[in-house]
Amino acid sequence: MGGSESLPKVSLTTDRVVLVTGGNTGIGYETAKWIAMRGARVIIACRSEERAKSAIERMQNEFKMEKSKGALGLCSSETLALEFMTLDLSSLRSVETFINNFKAKEPKLHVLLCNAGIGLHEQNYTEDGFEIMFQVNYLAHFLLVAKLLPLMLNSGEDCRLIFVSSEAHRTSSFDLDKAQGKHHTKENFKRLMYYGNSKLYQIMQMYCLNRRLQVANLTVNSLHPGLVNTEINRNFDDMKCLSCCFRLGGSLGMIKTPFHGAKTSISAAVNPQFKDTRDAYYIDMRIGRPNNLARDQRKQEALWKYSVDCLKDFLKEEDLQYLEKP
Ligand SMILES: NC(=O)c1ccc[n+]([C@@H]2O[C@H](COP(=O)([O-])OP(=O)(O)OC[C@H]3O[C@@H](n4cnc5c(N)ncnc54)[C@H](OP(=O)(O)O)[C@@H]3O)[C@@H](O)[C@H]2O)c1
Q: Atom 8 of ligand 1 has which residue's CA nearest to it?
Protein backbone atom coordinates (compact mmCIF):
# COMPACT_ATOMS: atom_id res chain seq x y z
CA MET A 1 0.00 0.00 0.00
CA GLY A 2 1.42 3.32 -1.04
CA GLY A 3 1.22 6.79 0.49
CA SER A 4 -0.59 9.84 -0.85
CA GLU A 5 0.63 9.07 -4.38
CA SER A 6 -1.86 6.18 -4.39
CA LEU A 7 -4.79 8.58 -3.96
CA PRO A 8 -6.87 9.60 -6.98
CA LYS A 9 -5.20 12.34 -9.02
CA VAL A 10 -7.78 15.06 -8.98
CA SER A 11 -7.70 18.79 -8.51
CA LEU A 12 -10.78 20.31 -6.86
CA THR A 13 -11.85 23.86 -6.05
CA THR A 14 -13.60 25.35 -3.04
CA ASP A 15 -16.80 25.52 -5.12
CA ARG A 16 -17.07 21.81 -4.44
CA VAL A 17 -18.73 21.27 -1.07
CA VAL A 18 -18.13 18.03 0.77
CA LEU A 19 -19.83 17.05 4.03
CA VAL A 20 -18.24 14.34 6.19
CA THR A 21 -20.12 13.13 9.26
CA GLY A 22 -17.75 12.22 12.09
CA GLY A 23 -14.81 13.95 10.41
CA ASN A 24 -12.97 14.68 13.65
CA THR A 25 -11.21 11.35 14.06
CA GLY A 26 -10.33 8.02 12.45
CA ILE A 27 -11.35 7.32 8.86
CA GLY A 28 -13.49 10.46 8.65
CA TYR A 29 -10.58 12.65 9.76
CA GLU A 30 -8.24 11.36 7.05
CA THR A 31 -11.02 11.46 4.46
CA ALA A 32 -11.90 15.08 5.23
CA LYS A 33 -8.26 16.15 5.36
CA TRP A 34 -7.20 14.58 2.06
CA ILE A 35 -10.27 15.79 0.18
CA ALA A 36 -9.60 19.30 1.51
CA MET A 37 -5.94 18.93 0.49
CA ARG A 38 -7.18 18.25 -3.05
CA GLY A 39 -8.85 21.69 -2.93
CA ALA A 40 -12.51 21.13 -1.99
CA ARG A 41 -14.32 22.91 0.83
CA VAL A 42 -14.99 20.33 3.51
CA ILE A 43 -17.45 20.59 6.36
CA ILE A 44 -17.02 18.13 9.19
CA ALA A 45 -20.22 17.42 11.09
CA CYS A 46 -19.35 16.34 14.63
CA ARG A 47 -20.93 16.18 18.04
CA SER A 48 -18.07 17.77 19.97
CA GLU A 49 -17.00 21.30 19.07
CA GLU A 50 -13.79 20.92 21.04
CA ARG A 51 -12.77 17.71 19.26
CA ALA A 52 -13.73 19.15 15.89
CA LYS A 53 -11.75 22.37 16.38
CA SER A 54 -8.68 20.52 17.53
CA ALA A 55 -9.02 18.14 14.54
CA ILE A 56 -9.15 21.08 12.12
CA GLU A 57 -6.07 22.60 13.73
CA ARG A 58 -4.22 19.29 13.34
CA MET A 59 -5.33 18.98 9.71
CA GLN A 60 -3.99 22.46 8.96
CA ASN A 61 -0.63 21.58 10.56
CA GLU A 62 -0.43 18.28 8.70
CA PHE A 63 -1.20 20.11 5.44
CA LYS A 64 1.79 22.41 6.08
CA MET A 65 3.97 19.37 6.78
CA GLU A 66 2.84 17.63 3.57
CA LYS A 67 3.59 20.84 1.66
CA SER A 68 7.05 21.10 3.14
CA LYS A 69 7.69 17.46 2.16
CA GLY A 70 6.68 18.35 -1.40
CA ALA A 71 3.75 15.90 -1.52
CA LEU A 72 2.13 15.79 -4.94
CA GLY A 73 -1.40 16.93 -5.81
CA LEU A 74 -1.90 19.37 -2.93
CA CYS A 75 -4.02 22.48 -3.46
CA SER A 76 -2.11 25.73 -3.81
CA SER A 77 -3.87 27.68 -1.03
CA GLU A 78 -2.12 28.57 2.23
CA THR A 79 -4.75 26.91 4.41
CA LEU A 80 -7.36 24.23 3.91
CA ALA A 81 -11.01 25.20 3.46
CA LEU A 82 -12.33 23.33 6.48
CA GLU A 83 -15.31 24.07 8.67
CA PHE A 84 -17.17 22.46 11.51
CA MET A 85 -20.89 22.16 12.20
CA THR A 86 -22.55 20.53 15.20
CA LEU A 87 -24.35 17.24 14.63
CA ASP A 88 -25.28 14.61 17.18
CA LEU A 89 -26.74 11.61 15.40
CA SER A 90 -28.05 10.14 18.64
CA SER A 91 -30.65 12.92 18.71
CA LEU A 92 -33.05 13.37 15.78
CA ARG A 93 -33.72 16.91 17.04
CA SER A 94 -30.01 17.65 16.67
CA VAL A 95 -30.08 16.21 13.15
CA GLU A 96 -33.03 18.46 12.32
CA THR A 97 -31.26 21.54 13.71
CA PHE A 98 -28.13 20.64 11.78
CA ILE A 99 -30.14 20.33 8.54
CA ASN A 100 -31.79 23.72 9.06
CA ASN A 101 -28.43 25.36 9.80
CA PHE A 102 -26.81 23.68 6.83
CA LYS A 103 -29.56 24.69 4.42
CA ALA A 104 -29.52 28.28 5.71
CA LYS A 105 -25.85 28.70 4.84
CA GLU A 106 -25.08 26.31 1.99
CA PRO A 107 -26.84 26.57 -1.36
CA LYS A 108 -25.02 23.49 -2.68
CA LEU A 109 -23.79 20.09 -1.57
CA HIS A 110 -21.80 17.87 -3.89
CA VAL A 111 -20.59 15.02 -1.72
CA LEU A 112 -22.17 13.62 1.43
CA LEU A 113 -20.08 11.01 3.22
CA CYS A 114 -22.16 9.20 5.84
CA ASN A 115 -19.13 8.13 7.84
CA ALA A 116 -19.88 8.67 11.55
CA GLY A 117 -20.56 5.49 13.40
CA ILE A 118 -20.29 3.55 16.62
CA GLY A 119 -19.15 -0.04 16.80
CA LEU A 120 -20.36 -2.90 18.95
CA HIS A 121 -22.06 -0.68 21.49
CA GLU A 122 -23.69 -2.33 24.48
CA GLN A 123 -27.47 -2.34 24.50
CA ASN A 124 -28.59 1.26 24.78
CA TYR A 125 -31.41 3.48 23.54
CA THR A 126 -31.38 7.05 22.28
CA GLU A 127 -33.64 9.85 23.49
CA ASP A 128 -35.78 8.99 20.43
CA GLY A 129 -36.23 5.42 21.69
CA PHE A 130 -34.14 3.62 19.06
CA GLU A 131 -31.30 1.15 19.58
CA ILE A 132 -28.22 3.38 19.52
CA MET A 133 -26.28 1.75 16.64
CA PHE A 134 -29.45 1.56 14.56
CA GLN A 135 -29.96 5.31 15.02
CA VAL A 136 -26.40 6.69 14.87
CA ASN A 137 -25.12 4.48 12.06
CA TYR A 138 -28.28 4.24 10.00
CA LEU A 139 -31.53 6.04 10.88
CA ALA A 140 -30.15 9.52 11.62
CA HIS A 141 -28.19 9.38 8.35
CA PHE A 142 -31.43 8.38 6.61
CA LEU A 143 -33.02 11.59 7.88
CA LEU A 144 -29.97 13.64 6.91
CA VAL A 145 -29.97 12.19 3.41
CA ALA A 146 -33.73 12.61 2.95
CA LYS A 147 -33.58 16.29 3.87
CA LEU A 148 -30.40 17.12 1.95
CA LEU A 149 -31.37 15.30 -1.25
CA PRO A 150 -33.14 18.28 -2.87
CA LEU A 151 -29.99 20.35 -2.32
CA MET A 152 -27.79 17.69 -3.89
CA LEU A 153 -30.15 17.25 -6.81
CA ASN A 154 -29.78 20.98 -7.51
CA SER A 155 -26.02 21.16 -7.10
CA GLY A 156 -25.03 20.38 -10.66
CA GLU A 157 -22.76 17.68 -12.06
CA ASP A 158 -21.26 14.68 -10.30
CA CYS A 159 -22.87 14.66 -6.86
CA ARG A 160 -22.11 11.64 -4.71
CA LEU A 161 -23.71 10.12 -1.68
CA ILE A 162 -21.58 7.55 0.11
CA PHE A 163 -22.32 5.22 3.01
CA VAL A 164 -19.36 3.96 5.01
CA SER A 165 -20.66 0.48 5.73
CA SER A 166 -18.72 -2.61 6.76
CA GLU A 167 -18.03 -6.27 6.06
CA ALA A 168 -19.72 -6.70 9.44
CA HIS A 169 -22.98 -6.55 7.45
CA ARG A 170 -22.34 -10.27 6.89
CA THR A 171 -23.00 -10.91 10.60
CA SER A 172 -26.49 -9.44 10.34
CA SER A 173 -29.90 -10.97 10.65
CA PHE A 174 -32.96 -9.37 9.09
CA ASP A 175 -36.03 -9.26 11.27
CA LEU A 176 -37.64 -5.85 11.53
CA ASP A 177 -39.84 -6.98 14.44
CA LYS A 178 -36.60 -7.35 16.39
CA ALA A 179 -34.77 -4.38 14.86
CA GLN A 180 -34.59 -2.51 18.17
CA GLY A 181 -33.38 -5.51 20.16
CA LYS A 182 -35.87 -4.83 22.95
CA HIS A 183 -36.50 -8.56 23.41
CA HIS A 184 -32.88 -8.88 24.62
CA THR A 185 -31.51 -8.23 28.07
CA LYS A 186 -28.27 -6.28 28.49
CA GLU A 187 -26.53 -9.61 29.05
CA ASN A 188 -27.66 -11.43 25.92
CA PHE A 189 -27.75 -8.45 23.52
CA LYS A 190 -25.76 -9.42 20.41
CA ARG A 191 -23.58 -6.38 19.86
CA LEU A 192 -21.83 -7.63 16.73
CA MET A 193 -25.10 -8.65 15.10
CA TYR A 194 -26.79 -5.31 15.82
CA TYR A 195 -23.72 -3.43 14.54
CA GLY A 196 -23.83 -5.68 11.45
CA ASN A 197 -27.55 -4.95 11.02
CA SER A 198 -26.91 -1.19 11.00
CA LYS A 199 -24.24 -1.67 8.33
CA LEU A 200 -26.55 -3.97 6.30
CA TYR A 201 -29.28 -1.31 6.41
CA GLN A 202 -26.89 1.29 4.94
CA ILE A 203 -26.23 -0.92 1.90
CA MET A 204 -29.96 -1.61 1.51
CA GLN A 205 -30.63 2.12 1.68
CA MET A 206 -28.16 2.64 -1.15
CA TYR A 207 -30.13 0.30 -3.42
CA CYS A 208 -33.46 1.90 -2.46
CA LEU A 209 -32.13 5.40 -3.14
CA ASN A 210 -30.66 4.53 -6.53
CA ARG A 211 -33.99 2.94 -7.49
CA ARG A 212 -35.80 6.15 -6.61
CA LEU A 213 -33.26 8.66 -7.87
CA GLN A 214 -33.03 7.89 -11.51
CA VAL A 215 -31.12 11.11 -12.18
CA ALA A 216 -27.83 11.59 -13.93
CA ASN A 217 -26.17 13.95 -11.48
CA LEU A 218 -26.44 12.00 -8.22
CA THR A 219 -25.01 8.56 -7.50
CA VAL A 220 -25.26 6.52 -4.31
CA ASN A 221 -22.57 4.04 -3.28
CA SER A 222 -21.33 2.24 -0.19
CA LEU A 223 -18.04 0.81 1.01
CA HIS A 224 -16.08 -1.21 3.50
CA PRO A 225 -12.92 0.66 4.62
CA GLY A 226 -11.08 -2.47 5.78
CA LEU A 227 -10.14 -3.27 9.35
CA VAL A 228 -8.76 0.06 10.55
CA ASN A 229 -6.95 1.07 13.72
CA THR A 230 -9.19 3.91 14.94
CA GLU A 231 -11.13 4.80 18.06
CA ILE A 232 -13.95 2.49 16.95
CA ASN A 233 -12.85 0.00 19.61
CA ARG A 234 -13.72 2.40 22.44
CA ASN A 235 -17.19 0.82 22.70
CA PHE A 236 -15.91 -2.72 23.02
CA ASP A 237 -13.05 -2.10 25.44
CA ASP A 238 -14.90 -4.38 27.85
CA MET A 239 -14.84 -7.25 25.31
CA LYS A 240 -11.31 -8.12 26.33
CA CYS A 241 -10.48 -10.70 23.67
CA LEU A 242 -11.75 -8.62 20.76
CA SER A 243 -10.19 -5.35 21.90
CA CYS A 244 -6.83 -7.12 22.57
CA CYS A 245 -6.84 -8.59 19.04
CA PHE A 246 -7.65 -5.18 17.65
CA ARG A 247 -4.84 -3.46 19.53
CA LEU A 248 -2.35 -6.24 18.78
CA GLY A 249 -3.31 -6.23 15.10
CA GLY A 250 -2.81 -2.47 15.06
CA SER A 251 0.65 -2.60 16.61
CA LEU A 252 1.72 -5.47 14.32
CA GLY A 253 0.58 -3.52 11.27
CA MET A 254 -2.07 -6.16 10.43
CA ILE A 255 -4.79 -3.54 10.67
CA LYS A 256 -4.82 -0.52 8.40
CA THR A 257 -3.84 2.94 9.55
CA PRO A 258 -6.65 5.54 9.38
CA PHE A 259 -5.03 6.99 6.25
CA HIS A 260 -5.08 3.63 4.45
CA GLY A 261 -8.59 3.02 5.75
CA ALA A 262 -9.71 6.35 4.30
CA LYS A 263 -8.47 5.66 0.79
CA THR A 264 -11.62 3.84 -0.29
CA SER A 265 -13.81 6.71 1.00
CA ILE A 266 -11.63 9.31 -0.71
CA SER A 267 -11.71 7.38 -3.94
CA ALA A 268 -15.50 6.91 -3.83
CA ALA A 269 -15.90 10.63 -3.16
CA VAL A 270 -13.54 12.18 -5.71
CA ASN A 271 -12.13 9.65 -8.15
CA PRO A 272 -13.25 10.85 -11.61
CA GLN A 273 -13.23 7.22 -12.73
CA PHE A 274 -16.25 6.51 -10.48
CA LYS A 275 -18.29 9.53 -11.57
CA ASP A 276 -21.18 7.48 -13.00
CA THR A 277 -20.87 4.42 -10.79
CA ARG A 278 -23.87 3.61 -8.62
CA ASP A 279 -24.96 0.68 -6.44
CA ALA A 280 -21.30 -0.17 -5.83
CA TYR A 281 -19.99 -1.63 -2.59
CA TYR A 282 -16.31 -0.69 -2.67
CA ILE A 283 -13.61 -2.61 -0.84
CA ASP A 284 -10.00 -1.48 -1.22
CA MET A 285 -11.01 1.03 -3.92
CA ARG A 286 -12.52 -1.76 -6.06
CA ILE A 287 -16.08 -2.88 -6.48
CA GLY A 288 -16.98 -5.81 -4.20
CA ARG A 289 -20.19 -7.73 -3.63
CA PRO A 290 -22.36 -7.40 -0.54
CA ASN A 291 -24.19 -10.47 0.79
CA ASN A 292 -27.47 -11.84 -0.61
CA LEU A 293 -29.48 -10.31 2.20
CA ALA A 294 -28.29 -6.81 1.32
CA ARG A 295 -29.29 -7.38 -2.30
CA ASP A 296 -32.79 -8.70 -1.51
CA GLN A 297 -35.10 -6.08 -3.02
CA ARG A 298 -38.19 -7.14 -1.07
CA LYS A 299 -36.32 -6.80 2.23
CA GLN A 300 -34.78 -3.49 1.12
CA GLU A 301 -38.25 -2.07 0.51
CA ALA A 302 -39.56 -3.43 3.82
CA LEU A 303 -36.68 -1.68 5.59
CA TRP A 304 -37.38 1.53 3.69
CA LYS A 305 -41.03 1.51 4.81
CA TYR A 306 -40.00 0.73 8.39
CA SER A 307 -37.47 3.61 8.37
CA VAL A 308 -39.91 6.16 6.96
CA ASP A 309 -42.32 5.09 9.69
CA CYS A 310 -39.62 5.54 12.39
CA LEU A 311 -39.08 9.07 11.07
CA LYS A 312 -42.75 10.01 10.65
CA ASP A 313 -42.48 12.91 13.10
CA PHE A 314 -39.58 14.38 11.12
CA LEU A 315 -40.37 13.76 7.46
CA LYS A 316 -42.86 16.13 5.85
CA GLU A 317 -44.93 15.69 2.67
CA GLU A 318 -42.38 17.70 0.70
CA ASP A 319 -39.55 15.38 1.84
CA LEU A 320 -41.52 12.26 0.96
CA GLN A 321 -42.00 13.27 -2.65
CA TYR A 322 -38.29 12.63 -3.25
CA LEU A 323 -38.52 9.31 -1.46
CA GLU A 324 -41.38 7.76 -3.35
CA LYS A 325 -40.79 4.62 -5.35
CA PRO A 326 -40.81 5.27 -9.09
N1 LIG B 1 -12.36 0.97 12.03
C2 LIG B 1 -12.76 -0.08 11.35
O3 LIG B 1 -12.11 -1.15 11.35
C4 LIG B 1 -14.03 -0.03 10.55
C5 LIG B 1 -14.37 -1.15 9.76
C6 LIG B 1 -15.53 -1.11 9.01
C7 LIG B 1 -16.33 0.03 9.02
N8 LIG B 1 -16.00 1.09 9.80
C9 LIG B 1 -16.88 2.26 9.78
O10 LIG B 1 -16.13 3.42 9.51
C11 LIG B 1 -16.80 4.56 10.04
C12 LIG B 1 -15.80 5.43 10.77
O13 LIG B 1 -15.33 4.70 11.89
P14 LIG B 1 -13.87 4.86 12.52
O15 LIG B 1 -13.25 3.52 12.50
O16 LIG B 1 -13.18 6.02 11.94
O17 LIG B 1 -14.30 5.13 14.05
P18 LIG B 1 -13.95 6.31 15.07
O19 LIG B 1 -12.51 6.62 15.03
O20 LIG B 1 -14.57 5.89 16.36
O21 LIG B 1 -14.76 7.55 14.45
C22 LIG B 1 -16.16 7.57 14.49
C23 LIG B 1 -16.67 8.97 14.24
O24 LIG B 1 -18.09 8.95 14.40
C25 LIG B 1 -18.45 9.99 15.30
N26 LIG B 1 -19.67 9.74 16.05
C27 LIG B 1 -19.93 8.72 16.90
N28 LIG B 1 -21.14 8.90 17.45
C29 LIG B 1 -21.66 10.04 16.94
C30 LIG B 1 -22.86 10.77 17.12
N31 LIG B 1 -23.80 10.38 18.01
N32 LIG B 1 -23.05 11.89 16.42
C33 LIG B 1 -22.10 12.33 15.56
N34 LIG B 1 -20.93 11.71 15.35
C35 LIG B 1 -20.72 10.58 16.03
C36 LIG B 1 -17.27 10.09 16.26
O37 LIG B 1 -17.32 11.32 16.96
P38 LIG B 1 -16.63 11.47 18.43
O39 LIG B 1 -15.17 11.59 18.17
O40 LIG B 1 -17.27 12.67 19.01
O41 LIG B 1 -16.97 10.22 19.18
C42 LIG B 1 -16.14 9.99 15.26
O43 LIG B 1 -15.94 11.22 14.62
C44 LIG B 1 -17.91 4.02 10.93
O45 LIG B 1 -19.15 4.14 10.26
C46 LIG B 1 -17.54 2.56 11.11
O47 LIG B 1 -18.67 1.75 11.32
C48 LIG B 1 -14.86 1.09 10.55
A: 166
CATH of the domain at 111: 3.40.50.720
Contact 138, 198 (CB under 8 A): yes
Number of other CB atoms surrounding residue 93 within 10 Å: 11
Cα-to-centroid distance, 8 and ligand 1 (Å): 23
Structural domain count of the chain: 1
Residue nearest to atom 24 of ligand 1 (CA): 116
Q: Ligand 1 pocket test: which of 30, 56, 118, 165 has the largest number of ligand atoms within 8 Å of its C-beta?
A: 118
DSSP secondary structure string, 225-284?
--SB-SGGGGGGTTSHHHHHHHHHHHHTT-SB-HHHHHHHHHHHHH-GGGTT--S-EEET
Nearby residues of 207 by Cβ (< 8 Å), 6 or more positions away:
279, 294, 295, 297, 300
Residue 315 structural domain: 25-320
Instruction: Compute the distance from residue 116 Cα to the ligand 1 centre, in Å.
Output: 4
Per-residue pLDDT tens digits for 270-281:
999 999 999 999
Residue 282 a catalytic site member: no
Task: Give pLDDT tens digits for 54-101.
Answer: 999 999 999 999 999 988 899 999 999 999 999 999 999 999 999 999
Residue 13 within a domain? no
Edge-first strand order for the sheet with 41-46 is 82-86, 41-46, 17-21, 111-114, 159-164, 218-224, 281-283, 286-288
Mutate to test the pocket of ligand 1, among 228, 242, 245, 246 (most ligand atoms within 8 A of CB): 228
Query: What would the pLDDT profile of 212-239 be if each residue is shown by its tens digit?
Result: 998 879 999 999 999 999 988 887 677 7
223 CA from centroid of ligand 1 (Å): 14
Phi (first) and psi of residue 184, to 5 degrees: -90, 155
Task: Tell me, using a 6 A CB cutoff, whether residue 193 lines ligand 1.
Answer: no
Which of 195, 207, 281, 282 is the catalytic position?
195
